[in-house]
Amino acid sequence: MAIKENNCGGGEETRRAILEVARKRFLHYGFKKTTIDEIAADAGIGKGTVYLYFDNKEELLLTLAREVKRNVTDQMRAITESLASPEEKLRRMLLAAVLSVHDVAQVTVHGTELVNELLSPRLMECGQPERKAQLELLTQVLTEGDFDLPGTPTEAASLFLLAMVPFFPPYLNPCHASPSCRRGLETQANAMLDFLLHGIRRR
């Protein structure tokens, strides 16, 4: 699905206002229960104005999903530019990916529902450019370090991302979604990273 371009006067400000209202509505009332009429009313604009910027409710969610993924990529990029060792960079980058999504899920009672929507197959495709960027950043760090990799740096980066999947909603690991879960989730993710990093250290 292509994101609609809009050239109306004051367009970006209105577009951002619509997105912010939609984000709050989705978090507090759930994606399925939220309507375009409610989003328009909260934004103080007509329903038709919303459709000037977004074709439907799913496109709003799609745009928000891209922003979540872009935020993770920005965090990972900042870590690659730090003075940390390659091993520590890998740890911080993958933890950032896990904990950023967890934090979105814990904002409100409907946070997990929203994240589940963001991670659904129909929306995951929209995140491929960001996933590619994250893969390239991880590959860069793996290339910097003196690691004994199983295959190419890109293949190893893909395996690291795959290993983190259980730490994303719907939480297939024992740590369930709750405000008190973040520390436990971080501990479990770190344990997994200890295991993975031990495997690629050159002996």
UniProtKB/TrEMBL annotation:
Keywords: DNA-binding, Transcription, Transcription regulation
Residue span(s) of domain HTH tetR-type: 12-72
Pfam family, one: TetR_N
Record feature DNA-binding region, as residue ranges: 35-54
InterPro entries: DNA-bd_HTH_TetR-type_CS, Homeodomain-like_sf, HTH-type_TetR-like_transc_reg, HTH_TetR
Record-level GO BP terms: negative regulation of DNA-templated transcription
GO molecular function, one term: DNA-binding transcription factor activity
Name of the featured protein: AcrR family transcriptional regulator
Taxonomic classification: Bacteria, Bacillati, Armatimonadota, Armatimonadia, Armatimonadales
